[in-house]
Design goal:
Layout: H1 14-17, E1 27-30, E2 61-63, E3 85-87, E4 99-102, E5 122-128, E6 136-137, E7 140-141, E8 149-156, E9 168-175, E10 180-188, E11 200-205, E12 218-224, E13 233-241, E14 254-256, E15 270-271, E16 288-290, E17 296-305, E18 311-322, H2 325-328, H3 334-337, E19 353-363, E20 373-381, E21 393-397, E22 403-410, E23 414-421, H4 429-433, E24 437-443, E25 452-455, E26 473-482, E27 485-493, E28 501-504, E29 513-516, E30 521-523, E31 529-530, E32 532-536, H5 547-552, E33 557-559, E34 566-570, E35 579-585, E36 590-596, E37 600-603, E38 610-617, E39 626-630
Parallel strand pairs: 15-20
Antiparallel strand pairs: 1-21, 2-13, 3-4, 4-13, 5-12, 6-7, 8-11, 8-13, 9-10, 9-12, 14-16, 17-18, 17-19, 19-20, 21-28, 22-27, 22-29, 23-26, 23-32, 24-25, 24-27, 28-31, 29-30, 33-34, 34-37, 35-36, 35-38, 38-39
Length: 632
């Protein structure tokens, strides 16, 4: 059976599915050299050997890796080793959320051999089952007539790197009496077409009586280039049981296929001090699929909990029909796939916190229940992130002096103290670590990066070896005060090397990513989110504004902005009489002050180009300063 339905255009497009390693222009993607989501653990010896001290499992054996949101490793209840990466980000259109990904990285997320040439291919990952009892069921011995089949689904490349013809994915069975592994299936690498999002089904009949042993095992293994996150295969829905046939091609299973969307409209994480109710999403996006062959009735629900596990919101979408995925694609009931999101945290949020949302699917029959519950955490921390915390590929510009900038919006004045940036440890890591870059901040300029607000000193990329689940923090040389408004934060590189910044292909914020290689800014054409995360709060004062005061902060209008010689200040809601302004430079110097009258125009022709902040003094309201750009 082939599953070829694409995700809808809200998260994927044909461009999204094309391997972007040769994108037109100068922005490009390339495979990662490491994996930040795999913590360092002690290695096990002789991964390919059989373990004899584990109690044999009874049939059925099933794993769909739906625990991927909780663990990056295979569950020890079923699997003997943990080389593969269990994840939700690399597959396209999986049967259920989570797959096991085979690549050229070890269990710590680091290359098996960082110096291996990309043209080579060697044994890389293993995924070996614990011993399984295929000798007898109760007192009756198993025979070939019991129709024992092992089935699974695999996908090449997905959101990663395609395996070449000298790469492969193989399946071995273990003959316990002979203490011998026997290859029973394999596929060579290939480059899937842009529209090939299939998971291909494999079904192996266990008819050789040499496998009918109480210590039977099977294992997957791959050959790949050992110098990075390369040559990807994704395995899903591994199922071994008796009384099966080759026509046993589906299971009556309704499942989540991906994580749900964020609570927030524009971010995966945002600083708690920048939260405002307007930031909350009013809809969620779910991807639900039915792996059966008939239409069944489905109920969807979600619950929202605070950090103390107190239930805050309950939603029920009610029963709806869901048809087979192979003919209908993802479930399209609005109440289930795009439900209204009614939760709004109290404003303001006074401290870092988190909320948990649990999604539930209920249908009868449903033979796989572990993929019917999806749990996500929404963090309000001290940083902004468009990305979901995982990287599938690296983003780079290979031009000296190139600039990369990401858009963020401050709802209230704050301070920028640092930026988290994940530089991937690619093969020419020593050359990359000797390269330099600067952290940069640009003003909003009406939708694209404008004037430079901040340029930090030169520094080198950092790799946190031994802690691949952490992103390095680059502290600013001096704290930067920023008023409410839109800013672009990023880097300028002083190298023509590919710095290779982590890039999340599952959250699309291409409209917020800009690059500059020739003197002008260009919006990114690659769907995804770059892992550049500004950290706010040199000091962390308690927010004191209420919703009403927040609305008052937007009573005054400055126009035009950017301005040249005349600045107009207007308010439709309150009088400007008895209001004065002070215009402060970016270094804190008062450069102009003026008393206002209704619909006042202020002469600013004496002020040079630059970034300023306009402070208001009015007896009726307290208003946050507004950013002013003067550009002639």
């Amino acid at each position: 059976m082939r599953f070829s339905k694409l995700l809808d255009s809200s998260i994927f497009s044909i461009i999204f599915l094309i391997c972007c390693f040769n994108v037109s222009g100068q922005e490009q993607l390339k495979p990662l050299g490491g994996n930040i989501n795999l913590p360092i653990i002690k290695a096990k010896s002789n991964l390919s050997a059989k373990t004899t001290t584990v109690t044999s499992l009874d049939l059925p054996f099933f794993d769909d890796f739906s625990y991927a949101t909780k663990s990056p490793y295979p569950t020890a209840n079923l699997w003997q080793d943990s080389n593969v990466y269990v994840n939700t980000g690399f597959p396209i259109a999986p049967l259920s959320i989570g797959v096991a990904t085979f690549d050229g990285l070890n269990k710590n997320g680091y290359p098996y051999n960082i110096l291996a040439p990309v043209s080579t291919s060697s044994q890389a990952d293993y995924l070996t089952s614990n011993p399984i009892n295929l000798k007898r069921m109760g007192v009756a011995p198993y025979t070939p007539d019991d129709s024992l089949y092992l089935s699974f689904y695999y996908q090449a490349e997905g959101n990663g790197d395609n395996p070449e013809p000298n790469d492969s994915l193989s399946l071995d069975f273990y003959k316990a009496n002979q203490q011998k592994w026997q290859k029973v299936w394999g596929v060579k690498g290939y480059n899937p077409s842009a529209t090939d999002t299939n998971f291909y089904r494999v079904m192996i009949y266990i008819k050789d009586t040499a496998y009918l042993d109480s210590s039977f095992q099977f294992r997957f293994r791959n050959r790949a280039t050992l110098s990075g996150s390369l040559d990807h295969w994704h395995v899903d829905y591994v199922y071994l049981n008796k009384a099966r046939t080759r026509e046993d091609t589906s299971r009556q299973d309704v499942a989540f296929a991906y994580r749900s969307s964020s609570f927030l409209k524009n971010y995966w994480v945002m600083p708690y001090r920048q939260y405002h109710p307007s930031e909350m999403a009013n809809k969620l996006k779910n991807y639900i699929r039915s792996n059966g062959t008939s239409t069944v009735q489905l109920t969807y629900q979600y619950d929202v909990y605070d950090s103390g596990n107190n239930l805050l919101v309950h939603y029920s979408g009610g029963p709806k029909n869901i048809g087979p995925f192979q003919s209908n694609g993802y479930h399209d009931s609005i109440q289930h796939s795009n439900p209204t999101f009614t939760f709004v945290p109290s404003f303001p949020i006074l401290n870092p916190t988190h909320y948990t949302i649990k999604h539930y699917l209920t249908t009868t029959p449903d033979v796989v229940q572990q993929n019917d519950t999806l749990e996500q955490v929404q963090n309000f921390s001290d940083y902004f992130a468009h990305d979901d915390g995982t990287a599938e590929v690296g983003y780079y510009l290979n031009t000296y002096g190139a600039k990369t900038a990401v858009r963020f919006k401050l709802n209230v004045a704050d301070t920028l103290r640092a930026v988290n940036i994940y530089f991937d440890p690619i093969v020419d890591g020593q050359a990359i670590q000797a390269s330099t870059f600067r952290i940069m901040v640009w003003d909003g300029n009406g939708g694209s990066p404008g004037g430079v607000i901040y340029k930090d000193s030169l520094r080198n990329p950092t790799y946190l070896q031994g802690s691949y689940n952490m992103i390095p923090t680059y502290s600013l040389t001096s704290c930067l005060t920023l008023g409410a408004g839109t800013y672009f934060i990023g880097i300028q590189q002083t190298t023509n090397k590919a710095l290779n910044i982590g890039f999340d292909k599952n959250t699309n914020h291409a409209n917020d990513l800009f690059y500059n290689i020739s003197g002008s800014w260009v919006q990114s054409a690659i769907p995804g989110s770059i892992m550049i995360n500004p950290i706010l709060g040199c000091t962390l004062p308690t927010p004191t504004v209420s919703v009403k005061e927040y609305e008052k902060n937007n009573l005054f209008i400055l126009y035009p902005n950017p301005a040249q010689n005349i600045l107009n200040i207007q308010s439709a809601d309150i009088t400007l009489e008895n209001t004065s302004i002070a215009i402060i430079s970016s270094i804190g110097q008062t450069v102009l002050s003026s008393e206002l009258e209704n619909n006042t125009s202020v002469d600013i022709s004496s002020l040079p180009n630059g970034i300023y902040f306009v402070y208001f003094n009015n007896k009726q309201v307290n208003v946050s300063p507004k950013k002013l750009i003067i550009s002639r």
